[in-house]
């Protein structure tokens, strides 16, 4: 077994790990990033709708099991940049009230151990890092910004501008989604949407092209790909993390580090901690509280197609509008429902992937006349919704919560869209094969008996271990978590530097 060493080890190159690397790149410390995947190659598959959605060219080759023991192929991607390589590039801030306890129809979303203001300046820094395009003053739930977006919003295409006006006329407040995309560069390679399309460095600002690119400018930062981390290793005192064991090209390595940052994603970070169990820590590392792997959340999500047979939607990318009119209430004095935003343009091949029985000509006609939306409601934390490991296999026992709110959002939006002149409204829920913002499995908090991490994502049980990805979140809110993960990662990186942390 070969041994290596570094000052700081980061496991995972998704948004959390890449932003940690960017934030630590000027610290003077040596930083090694381990990524189990390789860089996405630039091939024709990357803009081929059939390759992506029908042939599933990019899906991982692994299988997980659900609570009943049934195998399924997860939609978690393993490439440099992680799942962000396929994300919709939406960089929304959590609302100020998302950091407070918030009552929903089916329970309470818990308060965070930090407040919105603790992250506000880091939200600004993350928006600069990801070169976010957006506009203030359109969304009534928009939290306070101390700086404007770095760039103006991505423009609506004509069919989408018409949809925006229809929604305004029925009393809603459509706003320009904040997006990490250079639309001109993206379209110069091919006229496709970007949502769910892999970014082979052609216009999205994702974990690789934004944060990791900044980090790797420094010679003290290095990236190792194809490195599958098996477990973390403890020092003899049972508290400090000595490093990690990983496999690359069939060879086993141990890398030792003064500080270890786990950023493998809400499911795989939890699995690594659980697999690292020792005699002294039989429940896994960082797990004195018993919360590791528990409180798994995944947004309740539905695709909604609004169809007007009289109007043709000739847009290419489509995804420029969001709605938060029902974010904190249902518009009639009831509890929160959630967020609505445009999907990337849905084409006939995308529909075919989900409706294989339907004739192609029907799907083509449907796609020509539909505007396509993503409805998202908060999934509340439940300790029995959890990630487990069984040998080398991952078991994901997800228990959906707060479906009263999600069903209410579907009903409310059907009413709104019909009032806006769309006589046909179709809805289909996303299944467990589609990650919809997985989070919550290694929650942070002030009480070591009820959380695994402190407010700076440092493990209560291990003074030199940080976990910085969406697993730290104690609630899922109802907007995309990417920007919040990025902001917290930059905050934690600054904490490590400014306190000259040497655990």
TrEMBL record:
InterPro entries in alphabetical order: FAD/NAD-bd_sf (IPR036188), GMC_OxRdtase_N (IPR000172), GMC_OxRtase_C (IPR007867), P2Ox-like (IPR051473)
Region feature Disordered, mapped onto this chain: 137-156
Domain Glucose-methanol-choline oxidoreductase N-terminal: 202-299
Domain Glucose-methanol-choline oxidoreductase C-terminal positions: 403-489
Pfam families assigned to the protein according to its UniProt record, in alphabetical order: GMC_oxred_C, GMC_oxred_N, NAD_binding_8
Keyword list, A-Z: FAD, Flavoprotein, Oxidoreductase
Annotated protein name in UniProt: GMC family oxidoreductase
Native species: Microvirga vignae
